[in-house]
Amino acid sequence: MKKLLILMMAVALFACEESRKDAKLQLFLTDAPSPYEEVLIDIQDVKINVSSEDDEGGWRSLDDINTGVYNLLDFTNGLDTLLGEYIMPAGRISQIRLVLGEDNQVKIDGDYYDLDTPSAQQSGLKLNVQVVLNEGITYKMWLDFDAGRSIVEKGNGGYALKPVIRTFTEATSGAIKGVVKPVEAKPYIMAISAVEDTFGTYADTITGNFLVRGLEAGSYKVVINPANEDYEKITVEDIAVELGLVTELDTVKFE
């Protein structure tokens, strides 16, 4: 009888393992170029919420998180780095929580300034994602920092970090890339959809390259707005974006 019970338990365990439907999530960090020399972010944990409600029991840390201080400007114009991955039952992810440490700094004119980040240090910065993972599929998701908009100068001369981050997956997004000449124009590029959603990035200050990622399919207006007052704004209409593809513009030249 004892052997029969053990056999039944083994069969039940095998059946449970066979019926489990897993998916893999890989999470990457990327950034839009910014006018700063360095933006250093101290990442201590990344958690995902696998429940439909915002309760502590639904949060799980990604496996083997690559913690530490990252210079966001190392990951611009299509570059990224893997933060960690998580094998989980297929289903919906409702939120991601990015937990930061205390070693956050910005470098301006050769000097480093501490970034005040109280809310992110306490419980983590919550990002709503609402992504469904299907069984047997590996998904890549990016945390796309906008470093240029995330640094806020305080009245006392210091700086605060108020992260502007959006998320996108490889399977549900497209992109627009191009080159701006001359690089001295230092433009900010905005991709504006038909429903007035706006996504932006700075052109690389050395090459003039830019890449706007995480775009839904549709038609976009691209506005190239130079920081240098010697140049005038350029608008390119009717740019088509398709899922899983990168739409490349002709070189944009300021007169």
TrEMBL record:
Cited PROSITE patterns: PROKAR_LIPOPROTEIN (PS51257)
Limits of the DUF4382 domain: 23-163
InterPro entries reported in the protein's UniProt record: DUF4382
UniProt protein name: DUF4382 domain-containing protein
Biological source species: Carboxylicivirga linearis
Lineage: Bacteria, Pseudomonadati, Bacteroidota, Bacteroidia, Marinilabiliales
